[in-house]
Amino acid sequence: MLRTSRLIPLKKDDGSIRPIAVGELIYRLCAKALIISHFQPDFLLPFQLGVKSIGGVEPIVRLTERVLEGSAGAEFSFLASLDASNAFNRVDRAEMAAAVKTHAPTLWRTCKWAYGDSSDLVCGDKILQSSQGVRQGDPFGPLFFSITLRPTLHALSQSLGPSTQALAYLDDIYLFSNDSQVLSKTTQFLADKQHIIKLNEKKCKLISFDEIRQEGFKMLGTMVGGKEKRAEFLEGRIRKEMAKVGKLKDLPHQHALLLLRFCIQQNLRHLQRSLRSDDLVDLWERLDTMLWEEVKRMRMRQREDTVEEETLGRSLTKLPARLGGLGLLSFKDVAPLAYRSAAEASDTLLDNLGLLSSPEEPPTPVPQRTRCAELWESQQEAILRNLGDTERKRLTENASRLGRSWLSVIPYLQPLRLSNVEIASGLHDRTLVGSSIPVCRFCGSDSPLGHDELCRARNPWTQRRHNAINRVIYQHLKQIQGATVEIEPHTLSGQRRNDLRVRGSSALAFTDYDLKVYSLGDRDARSTVTPCAPNGKLADFCLDRCVNWLDKVGQVVSKNAPKVTGGVFKPIILSTGGLMSRSTADEWKEWREAMPVGGFEKMEKRIGVELVKARARTLVL
């Protein structure tokens, strides 16, 4: 049963079928664990990429770029690309077992168990037998396929001689050569090895680097060559993404925002690393504008933004959610950093293969994450320095764990669903714009950002927000083993009650909790605008000022708390945007350890949703 897989036939662009075998969960987990713990680099040839290799296809693309630039260690005139027909399913399992036993003996018994005899493939109500090749979808598949191909690639490399350099990403094989007959020689060499790899001669191609410079060459999901061909390629990909964005208008805004953040904006991220685009900045900027226009559509603002609001909104949209932004990262900003990091990592690998001309070692690669983190932190600091007190506090709340949790909520249950108006309210918060109406229709005062939840002339949502969050906490504390949770228990102070009481044999036993939700726009709250600039990061300064005030409020709540019998009192202090006091954060950690797996994350998302709903009730779009 462990080797049984569900067969899913996927249609390729050319109309053929790609059979994907999704294995049993425990099998896949064990396979990944074995690969992580037992894989050794010498299982494969140095030029075999695709299994625990840095950058994936990037070193092959990078070598092509360097040959075009004339900065490679050796001069090559031709590039041959080999296309294998039905590569993974064609491999002879006897050859695979022999290769694994020779080059990866620690995994031989595992290989024999996984592929020693046929296994079941479940497709609808039919059961097929897998008796040849490796299953596409099996974590072992790429490794065992590459090991099987190793002897053949080694023999091919020896046959072609030192004038040809092979680089392979799984079954995608590229030959850098000075021999114009390299493709025909390769075809002849592999003619009697079709039980291991069979070439699709119609798709194999030999092209000179002079042709690549003029006509471009599509390889491994990207394009190399002149600016015109690269621009044409990228523009075509962007048009496809724009068509997808255009279809979001038919979806609820919560679904559309999830697809925009986690799917559509991710589709072209790999090109930022593999496609040279330093001269295509205008195309990346067009993609950034498309994302921003879609955010404005879902924000449903009733008037046009001012120039300042437009600039601020764009800046916040491209800031990561953990820094208070919307997380639609700027392609224009990230592309040069991503390409540079990919180039450095690829150069290191190519240098180890002796394919670089520089006598000096390439610089130590700086990860893309490091470069981008520095960029985003500097952008956050620049944004904060131009904001007022209310905006700084709102941005600080947006960066909190609770304040950003609603952005990743999948609405598979009714309590997790947000209406279009509620999503619009949340996007108003993330872009730091208030009501479209400059004068409050309820009290007649000016209506800047934050006025909506402080206006006393409106129907307050404070009690309903409090009760909703209290119920969420109650429901999840009840899941702790050994805990008995009581809602609104009596105290020793007359009619006064706390919100929750936990008793029983759990780690949280004998504790009374009282939930308080405060607005950082309260007139007693501490200002984040000071005459003198802080010495450290402004973001840390704003966070400390806000949390310090919440701590002070918590101390007052504890001091005035009603007396309880046989237990301790702990206040739960939150801001209306999801920030919490330090003592609440400590209690939060204890809850996380005590709750069942996944329960704590569900609680946080439910609370984040309730906070967004509460603000939406008072905001006039």
From TrEMBL:
Signal peptide (residue range): none
Domain Reverse transcriptase intervals: 1-224
Stored SUPFAM superfamilies: DNA/RNA polymerases (SSF56672)
Pfam families in UniProt: RVT_1
Protein name (Swiss-Prot/TrEMBL): Reverse transcriptase domain-containing protein
